[in-house]
TrEMBL record:
Keyword Metal-binding: yes
Binding positions for ATP per the UniProt entry: 10, 72-73, 108-111
Origin species: Bacteroides graminisolvens DSM 19988 = JCM 15093
Keyword annotations from UniProtKB, A to Z: ATP-binding, Cytoplasm, Glycolysis, Kinase, Magnesium, Metal-binding, Nucleotide-binding, Transferase
Cofactor requirement: Mg(2+)
Any one cellular-component term (Gene Ontology): 6-phosphofructokinase complex
Domain of life, source organism: Bacteria
Any one Pfam family match given in the protein's UniProt record, by short name: PFK
InterPro entries: ATP_PFK, ATP_PFK_prok-type, Phosphofructokinase_dom, Phosphofructokinase_III, PKF_sf
Protein name: ATP-dependent 6-phosphofructokinase
Subcellular location: Cytoplasm
Length: 336
């Protein structure tokens, strides 16, 4: 049996560990052949592949990024594609010509949607959820999230000392796309005083009150953690908007930091390495059992899988009832 493996969408820590988990299990345990597909679905359009051997997998466990390269190619998007070009059919033909019995897709929400469409066309496909944003429906966690939260928490810790020395308000913007998971987890782990999430509407007067009350209680500085996806005036990015509004409302010296791609780069945490290894191994096991059209999940502490059509098009968002939000509120954190 021959499998092909690709990584699609934005990169994140743990992809290489997942590739290693899939391929080592395939080669050592099941005696399968593995083709690495370069640059996501673009590699299937171009037939840009390499044969993976045990040697290709050396040093991958702790390496950031993806050795396969990635792209945001969406083969089912019709916009800008000439009417006589049928990318999905071309990819299906190339998969056949390359002798690939099943494709393993490592990707985020967009990739799960694409994988579900290929599965519906009858292509043998298994996918692994990947994103720092943790917004993929059906899995408690995706690898990359723990690493991003660790990096963001470290940044918040570092902002505390400079905020306190200068008696400033420090606003830090973290990633997450439309979801507030990174902001919630790093904000709570880093002891943020205000944590703003796209899922919870905020009022500037509540933020002002929280900061001014801290001053009254002898705490002349504040840490404000904002998710990139919060509502702004549409002209300024989240950190800039909130920092300027806080300064205007309170008259306090306020600074902003946008953490950016640092959250996505570098080595995965031990938790993410093990999650990647387990998810990758389970993906290969599904293939060996002929169970296609499924996405690997982590539910509680169990690695399992669900049909791709159940995942496609859904987002997992933070809710008011999440225990970190409830506990944060009890401890005086302002969520808006
Ligand atoms: O999905 C991961 C993510 O890093 C988001 O948090 C962020 O909004 C987006 O990707 C950035 O994407 P790009 O790599 O296209 O700038």
């Amino acid at each position: 049996m021959r499998i092909g493996i690709l990584t699609s969408g934005g990169d994140c820590p743990g992809i290489n560990a997942t590739i290693r988990g899939v391929c080592k299990t395939a080669i050592h345990h099941y005696g399968m052949e593995v083709l690495g597909i370069h640059s996501g679905f673009q590699g299937l359009l171009d037939k840009d592949v390499e044969v993976f051997t045990d040697k290709s997998l050396s040093g991958l466990l702790n390496q950031g990024g993806t050795v396969l390269g990635t792209s945001r190619e969406k083969p089912f998007k019709k916009k800008g594609v000439p009417a006589d070009v049928n990318k999905p059919a071309l990819i299906q033909q190339h998969i056949r010509e390359l002798g690939i019995d099943c494709v393993v897709c490592i990707g985020g929400n967009g990739t799960q949607k694409t994988a579900a469409k290929f599965a519906a066309m009858g292509v043998n496909i298994v996918s692994v959820p990947k994103t720092i944003d943790n917004d993929i429906w059906g899995t408690d966690s995706s690898f990359g999230f723990d690493t991003a939260v660790t990096i963001a928490t470290d940044a918040i810790d570092r902002l505390h000392s400079t905020a306190s020395s200068h008696k400033r308000v420090m606003v830090i913007e973290v990633m997450g796309h439309k979801a507030g998971w990174i902001a919630l987890y790093s904000g709570m782990a880093g002891g943020g005083d205000v944590i703003l999430l796209p899922e919870i509407p905020y009022k500037l007067e509540n933020i002002r009150e929280t900061i001014m009350n801290r001053i009254k209680r002898g705490k002349p500085y504040s840490i404000v953690v904002v998710a990139e996806g919060i509502q702004t005036d549409g002209n300024r990015r989240a950190a800039e908007f909130i920092a300027q509004e806080i300064e205007r409302e309170t008259g306090l010296e306020t600074r902003e930091t946008v953490l950016g791609y640092i959250q996505r780069g570098g080595s995965p945490t031990p938790f993410d390495r093990n999650l990647s290894t387990r998810m990758g191994g389970h993906a290969t096991e599904l293939i060996a059992n002929g169970e296609y059209g499924r996405m690997i999940t982590l539910v509680g502490s169990e690695i399992s899988s669900i049909p791709l059509e159940e995942v496609a098009g859904k987002l997992k968002l933070v809710t008011e009832e999440h225990d970190l939000v409830v506990q944060g509120r009890r401890m005086g954190v302002c969520f808006g």
